[in-house]
Specification:
Length: 237
């Protein structure tokens, strides 16, 4: 049977994978994870493209390939088995793969649902999770103003005001930078603007209890949930 032709008719070039193909898909995804751990950006990019060409689900490539690889690197970093340069090259490889996945993961709706300003808070340079949030928000139909990393409270607020935003989204990856989310919320309060904006927070060290403690409206654990929640929050307003 012509496997390539057999399962067509699925959206976006995706189709049912047969047993032999499923095994190959698992192999290629594992290889992506391993190459990412070695920081081989070009190879990661090529293999992600190959995986997409084979019809492997982009979410599987992201979760079981790229993110799984980054988790391994994170564990080694924690145990001092690898250091900042190795983590940086792994992060570059991750971004190389994500760039290819973005158009597949993001199905932009016609009507913009609202405007979001998004950034990683002051003192924090981690941007991979924040970039995923930006990507998924765009996919959920938001106009997104990406403020980048190391973002000061005034910048969050000034840009939200200038852009007439609906929602302010903050990311933090360090236990030392997560308290800065409170600084941003306090600054909004002082300017009498707290009620004007929906505030969402996320990032590995952050949780729901912390969100409640600092007076954020929402904590979401991952980029897809962030986008769904933002959409619901803006449309319910
Ligand atoms: Co850093 N780093 N790092 N690092 N780094 C962590 C975070 C750490 C946990 C590693 C470890 O020790 N195990 C640790 C923090 C410990 C702590 O605070 N308790 C750590 C440290 C200590 C540091 C430095 C201080 C190291 C040093 O210099 N000695 C330093 C700090 C620099 C700074 O920011 N000022 C540093 C530097 C770096 C690199 C530059 C080398 C690199 C970042 C490169 C880059 O981002 N461009 C890096 C990396 C890559 C990591 C790890 C390995 C991976 C982070 C990541 O990208 N994960 C990380 C270990 C780990 O997390 N296991 C680590 C993948 C990403 C998709 O996940 O960002 O969590 P994440 O995003 C998730 C969710 O959290 C959520 O959505 C995403 C999934 O869909 N999410 C949101 C994120 N933001 C959201 C916002 C939302 C909603 C959901 O709404 C608004």
């Amino acid at each position: 049977m012509d496997l390539a032709a057999a399962g067509t008719g699925w959206p976006d070039g995706q189709r049912i994978l047969y047993k032999e193909e499923t095994d190959m898909a698992a192999e290629i995804v594992v290889e992506i994870s391993e190459l990412l751990q070695k920081g081989r950006a070009k190879n990661v990019k090529n293999l992600v493209q190959e995986a997409l060409d084979q019809g492997i689900d982009p979410k599987e490539i992201l979760n079981d390939g790229l993110l799984a690889g980054m988790m391994v690197v994170g564990g080694k970093f924690k145990r001092n088995e690898v250091f900042v340069p190795e983590v940086l090259v792994a992060a570059r490889a991750m971004n190389a793969g994500i760039t290819l996945l973005e158009p597949k993961l993001v199905e932009v709706g016609n009507e913009p649902v609202g405007k979001a300003v998004v950034g990683t808070v002051k003192g924090d340079l981690h941007d991979i999770g924040k970039n995923l949030v930006v990507m998924m928000l765009k996919g959920a139909g938001f106009d997104v103003v990406d403020l980048g990393t190391d973002v000061e409270a005034d910048v969050f607020i000034e840009r939200a005001e200038e852009e007439n935003a609906d929602i302010i989204c903050m990311s933090a990856l360090l236990t030392t930078t997560m308290p800065y989310m409170q600084t941003v919320i306090d600054a909004l309060q002082e300017k009498g603007l707290r009620e004007k904006y929906i505030v969402m927070i996320g990032g590995a060290p952050v949780n729901d209890a912390f969100a409640k403690q600092i007076g954020a409206d929402y904590y979401t654990p991952d980029a897809a949930t962030a986008a769904e929640t933002a959409r619901r929050a803006v449309t319910d307003r």
